[in-house]
Amino acid sequence: MNFFTRKRSAENAKERLQLVLVHDRTDLTPAQLESLKDDLLIAISKYIEIDPEAVQIGLERDGRSQRLVADIPLRNVSRRHAG
Amino acid sequence: MTAQVITITSGKGGVGKTTAVANLATAIAADGKKVVCIDGDIGLRNLDVVMGLENRIVYDIVDVIEGRCKLKQAMIRDKHFPEMYLIPAAQTRDKNAVSPTDMIRICNDLRSDADFVIIDSPAGIERGFRNAIAAADRVIVVTNPEVSAVRDADRVVGILEAEEKGNPALILNRLNQALVRNNDMLSAEDVLDLLGIQLIGIVPEDESVIIASNRGAPVVNDPKSRAGQAFRNIARRIQGQDVPFIDLDQQSGLWGAIQKLAGRK
């Protein structure tokens, strides 16, 4: 990697720790989180049409608490007019 | 007197728990308080050598628990501060010789007779750690600005939360300010943001800590040592005083003067 474009190591350390801590604290592996996302999408798709490509689900830290944050854009559905 | 019981722990080994206990106890004793240190690392006794008291041990904590001596007989008086004592760990016994109930009983016996009881926790999150936190009124977590140490500290903080031990305070030990300036070491802000607990002190990396422990004389006795100053400040904060944090960016000597002139500070 080029010396001038190389990210300084403290930034690597912080980013890696942010990820590791959130998984340690929730006792949820990245693979389990992926499967949680899949299950969540299947459940939501039963009721509304979503764009699976645009979905963003992740764990976020807020002080010492964690939250599961989901941004799930809905597909526009043209309303069927009855009669 | 009603002593406050403080446990110093870390998760990861080698981050400076024992050094912190020896220095904080010495600094608090130098402020005229009565302090009793307990080495909680059964089988891996170390606080005695760091405090320079290894030749004075007759009885240890397991002797007290198993009734071979009175509590007072296992309290080794410090060489310099007559109001500072060490209760050493047993070196030859297995960890199960001590239980959380034993620790609570010993600390309760000490409460009426001291200002502070400081417990040196072993590394890890097993029996020895559970013993060390059982009697604590307050827990201080020591870490270094390194990924492994911060990760383990976070595990310990999580366990303390689950055990309802209250919010622990953080000592960030061995911070190298030159590396932080180069963005090659996690800063105090980074570590606090990651761990989400309150800071009680930052101790700069300082060769005089190694020299002091070689001699068995805690570095707080060295008025020139920056680590010693940091530990003295933490000791005052433990005693409830409001001591401002040292500006670690201040550099002494010629290089600092040049940097100041060049406007880099």
Short description:
Chain A is built from 2 helices and 2 strands.
Give an overview of the whole structure.
The complex is a heterodimer of chains A (83) and B (265). Chain A has 83 residues and is an alpha+beta fold. Chain A has one domain (9-71). The longest helix of chain A has 18 residues, at 9-26. Chain A is built from two helices and two strands, in the order ααββ. With 265 residues, chain B is an alpha/beta fold. Chain B has one domain (4-261): P-loop containing nucleotide triphosphate hydrolases (Rossmann fold, 3-Layer(aba) Sandwich). Helix content of chain B is 39%, strand content 16%. Chain B contains eleven helices and eight strands. Chain B has an eight-stranded mixed beta sheet with strand order 3-4-2-5-1-6-7-8, with helices on both faces. In chain B, helix 1 (17-30) crosses helix 10 (226-238) and helix 4 (100-111) runs parallel beside helix 5 (127-134). The model of chain B has no long low-confidence stretch (mean pLDDT 93). At the A-B interface, helix 1 of A face helix 6 and helix 8 of B.
The top-level CATH class of chain B is Alpha Beta
The largest beta-sheet of chain B arranges its strands as: 3-4-2-5-1-6-7-8
- Relative strand content of chain B: 15-25%
CATH superfamily of chain B: P-loop containing nucleotide triphosphate hydrolases
SSE order and pairing:
The complex is a heterodimer of chains A (83) and B (265).
Chain A: H1 9-26, H2 30-45, E1 56-62, E2 65-71
Antiparallel strand pairs in A: 1-2
Chain B: E1 4-9, H1 17-30, E2 35-39, H2 47-51, H3 61-65, E3 76-77, E4 84-87, H4 100-111, E5 116-120, H5 127-134, E6 138-143, H6 147-162, E7 169-175, H7 177-181, H8 188-195, E8 198-204, H9 207-215, H10 226-238, H11 253-261
Parallel strand pairs in B: 1-5, 1-6, 2-4, 2-5, 6-7, 7-8
Antiparallel strand pairs in B: 3-4
